[in-house]
Structure prediction request, 212 residues.
Amino acid sequence: MDLYPFFDWLDTSMLADISKAHGGVFAVVQMFHLLGMSILGGMVLVGDLRLLNVVMRDTPSEIVIENTHKWFSIGLATMIISGIFLSSAVSLKLYYNEMFWAKMSALAVGIAFFYLVRRPLLSVPHEGIKPGLLKLMALTSIAIWFTVAASGRWIGFS
Amino acid sequence: MKSEAERQSSSSHKPRQVIATVVCVIVLASLAWFWSEQVKEVIEMLELAYGDGA
Prediction:
């Protein structure tokens, strides 16, 4: 599926006009992008490090995981909405950037992993889940979101 | 001793746990491959820029 038409449309859209002409607006939206990333990264680390028995050992992992889910979704939504605006400023450049597609692939895997694998499995009492699997899921989750963040940062250098 | 309900719940989650394990292994292997390729590329670039140190 060729997504070029979408990126071409984005490059000439009203979003692109605003992001290219108003540096202040771009900076504020970028701040929200970083805020969303901090919330998401924080929730991933708190939840996964609890599953690895590194932090908050005296709080049941079910409670920690339950509390991180809502804020994970808020962080993700903030990142995606602000990310579309930010990408409109350089959409055609991003289309030809290999690292951008690596980030988008990792993001898609991360979203699918979170909503289709991690959340449904962790919604039951964790006693019924093998401890090894809990740790494996935590490591996988950290690795995925590290890849999203690192490849996102790499876009700027490639 | 586990109650009947607990045992049923545990057994109904077994396939889900197997699927989760397989997904985790596939994802981790893919990420390991991805990052090893990136590291290789960076090493090649450094060798081009600074020579192989010989």
